[in-house]
Amino acid sequence: MKRIILNAKRAWVLAAVIAAAMLSAGCGGKYEEAARALDFLKYEYFTCTAVRVESGDSFFCEPPNMNMLKIRLVGVDIPPDEESGAKKFSESVLRRGTLVKVETSESVDEYGGPLSYVFVPGGKMLNVLLVENGYAEPVAGELDAKYKNVFVDISVVEETEETGGGGQKSPWIK
User: How far apart are CA 29 and CA 91, in angstroms?
Assistant: First the structure.
């Protein structure tokens, strides 16, 4: 009986020491606070509410219980002469209060922020809609393998339409 009590005390002391070590190691202050604020990036996607469009390929949104974030689209390049039209198109799709699904990519912008795929109500990808409607050109180097074929399919459709082939759009893009 005495041996069981000693083993229980040792286990309790060991658990207390481990807990104390974890707490003292976790007292980094602002680093942990920033890491907790960015925990949503660990998930495959997150949802947020559109606040305002900044340009054709970027907008601000508010995830639940978080501060406003700037979201930049991946895989699209908007020529300067199309910027005004692209911004108006994005504003028509991303009206204030629109709930969108944001999936971050492996690519980052020039400031180190993640580039994202944005899905609007109905499941359409805003990145693809901008290319389909002629406001942007696809940038293959930024795309993840998961969506590269979607942008390739758009390019094939555009080429066949230009040459009179009358290609088909991907079935999920309506």
Answer: 39
